[in-house]
Amino acid sequence: MNRKDLDPQSSPRAAFGAQLRRSRESNEWIQDQLAERMGYSGTHVSAVETCRKSPTLQFARRADTALGTGATFEVMWQAIRKTVLLEGFPEYLQEEVKATKLYTFELGVIPGIFQTPRYAEALAQADVERGAITPELGAERVALLRTRQKRLLEARDAPLLYAVLDESCLCRKVGGHDVMADQLEHLAQQARAPHVTVQLVPFSMGHLRPLLLPVVLLTMRDRTVVGYTESASRGYLERDDNLIRAWERAYDHLQAGALSPAASLDLISAARKDFQDGR
């Protein structure tokens, strides 16, 4: 049997095809069996797996339904399109959908995975008003975020999520007082989920805070770790062992100095009340 093996790191299309094959084989299905469940031909599935054909949004959604993969393939399809994504972020998405644990540190804004639609729309609208993106791209960006949230928060194989947030995330007003009150209530609800841990780094930590930029660390099934950070203009996927170990040490220090999950919930509730009261 001829088999074309792809390097999933070579392109988003290759990553999609390789993941489709892995998911199909984990169910012990041949291509025709998956194709029948998706409403395609076995030849079509084979062409996507081997990168001879690019998947469509419909194909990605049907693959997720047939394979029970949440929104994995829909997210990967967005990485292929790239139109609404910061340079470097499509490569990150290829890894995010495979992670079993996700550790994130954020400054100034609530992390995307916990954003409400109105909060995300307010951030996108700000980029539209600055002329950085078109209104259409802003809407697509919010839609992509919702797709990622389905994968990270609602899928049956969702990864464990650890979020350490600077206290500034609770204080920066985005979209108005009512938007912030709803956002902080939503963050508190997500923080109570069994696979989510949220901790706040208080302002009192001051200069002892070991990270100055947002960072994400992804742990894979084979226990390898991939890192990601962003500048104002692009994202950077990191695999260098020395840098990853340095980020892991810094993250450990952050967690040690952060408030406990329970105390963090109290701080979130207090900030929410301030916005409700118009302060």
Helices and strands in order, then pairings?
Blueprint: H1 12-26, H2 31-38, H3 42-49, H4 57-67, H5 72-81, H6 89-96, E1 101-106, H7 117-129, H8 135-154, E2 160-166, H9 168-171, H10 177-191, E3 196-201, E4 215-219, E5 225-230, E6 235-238, H11 241-257, H12 261-276
Parallel strand pairs: 1-2, 2-3
Antiparallel strand pairs: 1-4, 4-5, 5-6
Please give a structural write-up:
With 279 residues, this protein is α/β, with parallel strands linked by helices. It is 52% helix and 12% strand. The protein folds into two domains: 70 residues, lambda repressor-like DNA-binding domains (434 Repressor (Amino-terminal Domain), Orthogonal Bundle); 184 residues, 2-Layer Sandwich (Endonuclease, Chain A). It is built from twelve helices and six strands. It has a six-stranded mixed β-sheet with strand order 3-2-1-4-5-6, with helices on both faces. Strand 4 and strand 5 form a beta hairpin. The radius of gyration is 20 Å and the shape is globular. 37% of the residues are buried.
